[in-house]
Amino acid sequence: MKILQKALAFVGLLSLCGLFIYALQDAPTDENFETKLINDYNVYALQVPDNLNFAGEPLPLQNPDILERMDRELLVNTYWQSNGLLMFKRAKKYFPVIEPILAKHGIPDDFKYLAVIESGLTNAVSPAGARGVWQIMKSTGRENGLEINTNVDERYNLEKATEVACKYLKKSKEKLGSWTLAAAAYNGGIAGMSRRLKAQNVNNYYDLLLGEETGRYLFRIVALKEILSNPNKYGFNFREKDLYKNIPTYKVEVDTAVTNFAKFAQDFGINYKILKLHNPWLREPHLNNKSRKLYKIDIPKDGFYQTGP
């Protein structure tokens, strides 16, 4: 029995040594690494581009910690494929609304990617109470002229919310001196960023020690910019017809109360659901409008929706 046990142990040891030698021989080397990656499905180590920038301001990728943080966000956002495809689809629908407003205010086009990481280009609601594509807090919205109450919440109006975001970003740039810090301040606040810069005796975002969220913020923006600008490079495959469409609308001016938006919608050949899809800032099925304010309601042009049986 002991002889048999020793024999089995010896065979096991030989097998283990063989597996170890095989593993060493099969380990990726500089010469065979690319060949071994060509299989039915692979996860690749990504090459971080050398010349990444935000709003023309370069990332100091020569610093090891900056390179690692950038690498993380590229990996996370490349391999979260379902979310990535949704960002491509929504960007096609909403960027045409955002881009001209940024340009009008002299805000770099890269800030459209800030909206992507803030909300995924949806009318999100944060635990802190921020709302809409640009995640605007109630106080910030009201300070910048938005109407916010239970009946109307213009943080959900993409055009008006983008205008407010532009005002905030311009103010941040004036106070902090760079577009990178202005973007960081959208998450960490102007006062908060100023305080941290002074306390740590530095003058740029990449030298700051920050909490998890604000510390990842710029890298997430730049990662989404890089991926959405280069779909094939990062393995995203789609056709133009797979992307969401920006439905053309016209504006109807209203300066009175509206008692029933379902009936109002029917007068324009649509239903209440479609009216709300294009005007999410209308928060109730009626409009109070005691002050006789002039509102502009978006109505989709004919032929894009089919309603009823």
Automatic annotation (TrEMBL):
Residue stretches making up the Transglycosylase SLT domain: 108-201
Gene3D superfamilies for this protein: 1.10.530.10
Coiled coil feature spans: none
InterPro entries found in the cross-reference section: Lysozyme-like_dom_sf, Transglycosylase_SLT_dom_1
Membrane-crossing segments per the record: none
SUPFAM superfamilies cross-referenced by the UniProt entry: Lysozyme-like
A Pfam family: SLT
CDD domains noted in UniProt: MltD-like
PANTHER family registered for this protein in UniProt: MEMBRANE-BOUND LYTIC MUREIN TRANSGLYCOSYLASE C (PTHR37423:SF2), SOLUBLE LYTIC MUREIN TRANSGLYCOSYLASE-RELATED (PTHR37423)
Record family assignment: Belongs to the transglycosylase Slt family.
Protein name, entry field: Lytic transglycosylase domain-containing protein
